[in-house]
Design a protein that fits this description.
Layout: E1 18-23, H1 29-43, E2 47-50, H2 61-71, E3 74-79, H3 90-103, E4 106-107, E5 110-111, E6 113-118, E7 132-133, H4 138-141, H5 145-151, H6 159-177, H7 190-208, E8 219-226, H8 227-233, E9 242-246, E10 262-263, H9 264-270, H10 277-293, E11 303-305, E12 312-322, E13 327-336, H11 346-366, H12 374-378, H13 385-406, H14 411-414, H15 420-446, H16 454-492
Parallel strand pairs: 1-2, 1-3, 3-6, 6-7
Antiparallel strand pairs: 4-5, 8-9, 8-13, 9-10, 11-12, 12-13
Helix pairs in contact: 1-6, 1-7, 2-3, 11-13, 11-16, 13-15, 15-16
Length: about 500
Amino acid sequence: MSTGTEKVTDLGPKPRVLRIFISYAKEDQKIAIAVYNAIQTALGAFADVFIDDALRFGLKFQDEIKKRLDQTDVLVVIYSAELKPSHSFTGMELGYFMRVIERETSFSNFKRRIIPIYVDGPPDTLSDIEGINIGISRSTLAMTFEEYEATLTLDADNRMVKFLQEFQEIVDKIREKNGFPKVPQSPDQQDVLELVRKMQLAIFGHLRTNPESTLKPQKQIIISTNDVALEASGDDLPADAVLTPVGSGNPMSVFGLPSTETTWGDFQRLIRNAKFRDSWIDAITSVVTSSLQSQLEVDNSQVIVSQDEKHAFRVILTSGTKYFNGVREFNLYFVEYLRRGDFGDQSTTLLLKGLELSCRFRFLFLERNSEFSSMSIRIANPAAIRDVARKVEREMNLLVRDALEVGLDKANVWADFVDWPCLARMNQAWQPIELKIRDNLTEIRKCRQDSETLPALRESLAASIQELETTFKPLNAELIDELTDKLKQYIHE
């Protein structure tokens, strides 16, 4: 085993050394350190074993990584079956090194190679490459540390032992070329066996402290991007920002999509025909971008309606993480609104729900003191009209959800309480006005905060709301009258 005490540099040119790069995700750091200690101790000073805590301050992270990979002889990829919620550069490092190998198959008479060191199984991208199984299974982890230590046996056929011995021979040849003698190894390989034993015990001790499983029934999505892309995207999110669904709650089902990782650009394309597309995009971007200004004033008030129109979710940013390398992660939860249980007679329940919807519609759009009245919108600051438009759309969507939730989206249900002629007049009047208002809201959302067209769009929205007021004040009053009369009848009966 190499002592690693001799100096390999002086005032002359640096001697050739074997360069090994250890690539790992943050969750596997302790495994990577155990592997690093074994390799560096076994190979000594003529092996430059890189692990990313050796990065020099002040250097651009990805540039330094690529520079080192250009000089690397062996890429060691550490992989465990643990879920990797963190952003890591493992995939980038592997892909870049594969391209390095394609460009140059040899480096100083040494053929570059990739060696996966893994728990359970290798990563899919390296399944065709012979690697090293650490050999710690789920059943093994059921042992105590003392039981594992007592039963741990290693011999010359162990893959990690063979790996270290092979590279000791390679390093010895490098030493000879540089005028240094070979490092004497113990004939019975005890030095290497002891190194691998220490590595195995360290990895076992780490894996024993890992959770076997974690249940995450919440609907959770992690959005990953970087500062440069965020700055260039303005009010939107970068098209290449990655949306990663987390846990068993199937968060993408809110949007009618399968629970698979996608980019922000592809997400927008997949939901392009969805009824609530604009409100979904607006809610997510509002929550994320609000956290960029001040973490104390994050906009966690956003509410969206699901694709099936039966559920409403509050979009909550629970954490926004900024890494020193400029990477950003935003952890979003979609928390469903609590629906209280119904009691008593079903007819009374439906009648009261209908009355509640009718009154809420009146409070939102027909009363002059509402922030959504035509006069309030007409005098609103143009810079604030985009926020007003978001709120209008949110409330309209929630009215739809509330009606669907109790079955009041069907005319025949309303017909138990209200005359058909009244329902027909309301339905005939509502559809074209709703379409006009939603078109106004879409146009406002497309504008930037400082757009010169916002005053005109504000006026167009105010005109649509005014038309709604003029048309629906008598119809809404007639509806409330009929519902109230029916309620009185139920009470006296």
